[in-house]
Amino acid sequence: MSQWSTRDDRVIALPSGRLIRGRGLAAHPELSPDPDFGLYLLADEVRGVPWDHTWVEWTDFGLPVDPAAAREELTAAWQRATYERVEIACLGGLGRTGTALACLAVLDGLTPGAAVDLVRAEYDGRAIETAEQVDFVSDFAR
């Protein structure tokens, strides 16, 4: 398969070297190149995506409806990022996407605090919008 470039828009590098693209489907409707796999964090199932993808039910400003399923999908996305272009996205690209990116950084070996700091420094300073989302990253590390 293929990898992102660090020059690609909205791509964050994890400590292991895995590259993941985060985006907001409404905020960044068209980015190139297309991902090989997308993990979409939305209240309703995503439709019309032409590449391999999955959906986690996750409300805006909230948390995943099924945290165990979210952990499973985030872990799978993290693993796939070793050999594919993986995209994580919600509508705005900040709260849910930022939280998910921080969870991937935890899987990559960072502490929850360092993971949140990395996402805010390297992806978007407004990422991970609520205290509950910060707590989710901490809980994800356990």
Automatic annotation (TrEMBL):
<feature type="domain" description="Tyrosine-protein phosphatase">
    <location>
        <begin position="47"/>
        <end position="120"/>
    </location>
</feature>
<dbReference type="Pfam" id="PF00102">
    <property type="entry name" value="Y_phosphatase"/>
</dbReference>
<protein>
    <submittedName>
        <fullName>Protein-tyrosine phosphatase family protein</fullName>
    </submittedName>
</protein>
<dbReference type="InterPro" id="IPR029021">
    <property type="entry name" value="Prot-tyrosine_phosphatase-like"/>
</dbReference>
<dbReference type="InterPro" id="IPR000242">
    <property type="entry name" value="PTP_cat"/>
</dbReference>
